[in-house]
Amino acid sequence: MPPERTKPQTFEVVVTAVIRETADTVTLVLDAPEIPPYRAGQFLTIDPHVFPVLAAQIAYLEHLKGGKKELVRAYSMASAPHEPLAITIKEEPYRPGDLHAPLLSPLLVHATPVGARFSVVGFTGPYTLPPDIEQRTDHVVHLVAGSGVVPNFSIVKDSLRNHPKLRHTFIDTNKTWDDIIFREGLQRLVTEHPGRLRLVHTLTRQSDLAGLPPGVRQGRLTAELLRELIPDSGTALAYLCGPAIASWERKKALEAGTAPTPRFLESTIANLQSVGFTPARIKREAYG
Domain 9-124 adopts which CATH fold? Predict the structure, then answer.
């Protein structure tokens, strides 16, 4: 197994396949002469400055910000370490107040063909299963929303292969059925690993569930649903990834003297704790 901490390396990749997941999300399958080892759940980073086509937009935005440099973007691996390297990118919308307008994700989602080459830096991130996971629990609960599914998809594929004593409950929240990333891939894992993986979809903006599988629920993830699906909250481990309150939202709320509105991450942590999960049994990764 790769070491817990290694210095991220810069290396060039070539896109070998572009897989359309949803209308605003793609998976890029990547190759390189030598790919450093990584652990399921980790991410790589891409600097928008490596794309000449973005140079003018970057220069303009950095000018508006008084020379403040555009940040690198982080993308979790959709692949497990035993698979061809792949990242999944969801196009980011611009939200008023955010100082960093989306630059890289629209390019990667809509205008990156097979054969494209660019540099990446990888790999890093602590959102991984510990080596002694089978001594800590026999049940891992995945709670994800939107593109937060990406690292957990990598984790569950790796775990089903390498941790035969573990079972998994995968709760995936999206707006509609068509917004679900890896919909077929997740169902395929359920079919391939009967009894070890339970999949539940919750849809927040689709009231008509006619024709959808029986495991689909309507509405947001609630404490009541968690009690139903996770009777062993005292021993299970929760891996939680999805949108969280952004730093600029916290600053705006502070200036207004109000509390920022909780997003998926904050609401789900509160629900988990209300059904018996201790903070030590919750691992989180924020997107937002």
Answer: Elongation Factor Tu (Ef-tu); domain 3 (2.40.30)
Q: Is 284 helix (H, G, I), strand (E, B) or coil?
A: strand
Per CATH, which fold does 133-287 belong to? Rossmann fold (3.40.50)
Distance between terminal CA atoms of the chain? Answer: 30
If DSSP codes are grouped into helix, strand and coil, which group holds residue 197?
strand
C-alpha closest to that of 181 among 87, 73, 115, 267? 87
Closest by Cα among 9, 49, 11 to 30: 11
Q: Is 156 helix (H, G, I), strand (E, B) or coil?
A: helix
Q: Which residues fall within 8 angstroms of residue 225, CB to CB, at 6 or more apart?
A: 171, 200, 202, 217
More confident residue, 169 or 246: 169
Among the listed ranges 61-65, 95-99, 192-196, which one has the minimum average pLDDT value?
95-99
- Provide the whole-model pTM: 0.93
CA distances for 184 relative to 37, 133, 188, 225, 266, angstroms: 27, 27, 6, 23, 28
